[in-house]
């Protein structure tokens, strides 16, 4: 049997870090949404019980370090499944970019092997397993737009934002999420107003959403990599309605409500960094 799953990237419209916890993770409060830049996952049953990962991308590991492999292994062990799976990842989301590419691949594999192996588990049950793989995996399982708390694994759905264009630009460098959290000094960090962002979504108010974007981790990555600030400035000058770094970075996104301005921002960045995308906000839950 063969099935396909779509694994969309996420952006953090709002990311607040509250405090460091006893377990080393940080308590966060985030508003996240999916965008139409996605990896494509192909799954085939392997009757010999093995798990294999393949990708044409040279940036992703093809062994147990791959989050997609870990997702399949977790499902196989947890539900005592005899069959195996070949996972092919068509990698379209930039790696180590702050767009949750690996987490979304893992979530797609959880959903996919659930179907492939006929397990019929609920998304809520899969989300509990997903949290063992990474903090963003639970959100990626549901997709859409959501409020995420805890270390990111407690997910409550929110209404989709009004349709708009999202321009994504990643400078040619990767960022380790762990390093960014380690370098965060909460005493002088910026804290976005999460409640105001949730209200803006409830009101379906694009201007209010743009006014409320904010990310506590942005200052850390800006200090580490000046390219992030340069991209932000370039996007602002080209007419973006809102500009923010996603997750721990280094990808910066802008929100724009006309395609002409989205194109202008895209053109202004093309000479500056090679990985630039103009995509739609998905907002609602996207499957397969
Ligand atoms: C930056 C975000 O992507 C925003 O959506 C997430 O907070 C990070 O999610 P993720 O990449 O799935 O992160 P994980 O794989 O769970 O954790 C990677 C590392 O980031 C740090 N980490 C992550 C999440 C969190 N709430 N607090 C943390 O301090 C920890 O040092 C952890 O070892
Ligand atoms: N399927 C995968 N796709 C991409 N990276 C993977 C995958 N599996 C493991 N990795 C490893 O995970 C690391 C982080 O990659 P990823 O693209 O998920 O980062 P990210 O977008 O910054 O994630 P987040 O936004 O959740 O912090 C990379 O160094 C990569 O080697």
List the helices and strands and how they pair.
Elements: E1 2-20, E2 26-46, E3 51-55, H1 67-78, E4 84-90, H2 101-116, H3 123-133, H4 137-142, E5 145-149, E6 154-157, E7 165-170, H5 177-182, H6 194-202, H7 206-212, E8 214-215, H8 218-224, H9 226-237, E9 242-245, E10 252-256, H10 259-270, E11 275-280
Parallel strand pairs: 1-8, 3-4
Antiparallel strand pairs: 1-2, 2-4, 2-5, 5-6, 7-10, 7-11, 9-10
Helix pairs in contact: 1-2, 2-3, 6-7, 8-9
Domain GHMP kinase N-terminal: 66-144
Pathway: Isoprenoid biosynthesis; isopentenyl diphosphate biosynthesis via DXP pathway; isopentenyl diphosphate from 1-deoxy-D-xylulose 5-phosphate: step 3/6
Active site: 10, 136
